[in-house]
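#lab-general

N.A. 3:47 PM
ok so I finally got the sequence cleaned up, no stray characters, all 360 residues accounted for. can someone with queue access submit it? mine expired

B.Y. 3:52 PM
send it over

N.A. 3:53 PM
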Amino acid sequence: MNKLKQYFITTNQGEYREGEVHRFCQSIKISYPIQAATLTATALGVYEININSEKVGDQLFAPGFTYYHRDLFYQTYDVTAQLQVGDNQLDAWLGQGWYAGRFTHENLTQIYGEQTAISWVLQVTYADGTEEQFVSDEKVEEYTSKYSYAGFYDGEIYDATATEQRIGTAQHYSGKIPENLEKTLIPVKLQEEMHVHQVTEKDGKTILDFGQNFAGMLEIDPSYLNGKATINIRHGEILNEDGSLYTENLREAKAELVVTLAPDSPIYRPTFTYMGFRYVEISGVKYQPGLIKAHAIYSEMKRTGTFETSNAKVQRLYENQLWGQKSNYVEVPTDCPQRDERQGYTGDGQVFARTGAYNY
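B.Y. 4:20 PM
back already:
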């Protein structure tokens, strides 16, 4: 999809700030009934696009992690059902992700580029056979974002009640664009819903035990709130002897969500981060069942091998390595899903390759 290379836009907000998220808005006027509509998009960074307040597609962390000096993925979505005759709005959020955000165990930033950028082409075919394109260009407007910070290691600071202000229009991106654009083959998606096994109170905070260590993300349903609230959530893999959350193994990663919601806010789910955890610590709001939900995430893979035994301990060992694979197959085989690392790593990968191929 080489035409995407023509339409990369970036922010007009000036110097790079770690964890910044940009929001771009495009008004789309559909004058006639539609036969079909497709949206093709990519980014130097991580993006999520909504049309008329509904997320486009179900891929997480699009366009995906590549060697950006050379390669870049793109996605094509069928958005026919999301468009209507009349006024429509496309909203695009652009985070730094692996491209420019804090990444690697050395906690570097801007590894692949100094500034994020995004490109999209909306192709509309009307019922009479005529066609129209809506593209990301310098007419696209930029607004402030409800995200104060977003990054893989530290998490997200998000205020659903914040008022977004118009900044101006986007700027054409004049930086280097990867030579090869390829369609995503194995997207990361929400997988199993993980249920709360135990709830405990510790020093005025609530600790939820999901009964399994996994790579995933939470959803917060604000309809359970009595009023506006700022919820602080920390993630961890184990507990200290006194029952408090253990986080020393996370090193420089905060693995934290700070989310401000009102009862009428949309359901919140992170867009630009995920965590490796079994436990979460909640403060700032009284927990009640239904407020928090969790999903495992991993690259969409077809299960090809299974193993069953009557020996419970051996079966548990098998299940452990299966969860280890799911937790570390997020875009590329990684070294760990929780701390300031989560890098592609062939040290463990080559040892596990045959087992991984058997499982999936």
